[in-house]
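Revision sheet: structure tokens.
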Amino acid sequence: MRDEARRKVEQRVKQEGIADYKNQPESFVFCEVGGHAALSWSADYTLSGQKWTEYLTAVLSENCHALFFLKAPADQVALVRPKYEQMIKTLRMP
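Predicted:
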């Protein structure tokens, strides 16, 4: 699952050109979502001169993989993260 986080950095930097996109190593949390293994973490980057944070959750089942993410200005992500986490808890995968 940590490979997913590494791949997301590569995607954001190489494909999307976000040069300073970096995962927050201390933010990695292994958990369970809908009975499946999951990993949540945050990454920081700059967009138009402003600090932003992306909060991601990868969920794996035997049959599929889901990746959710929330992007917000760094000073606002804490305000919307509770609703994001409520949404993730509703996930049902085969």
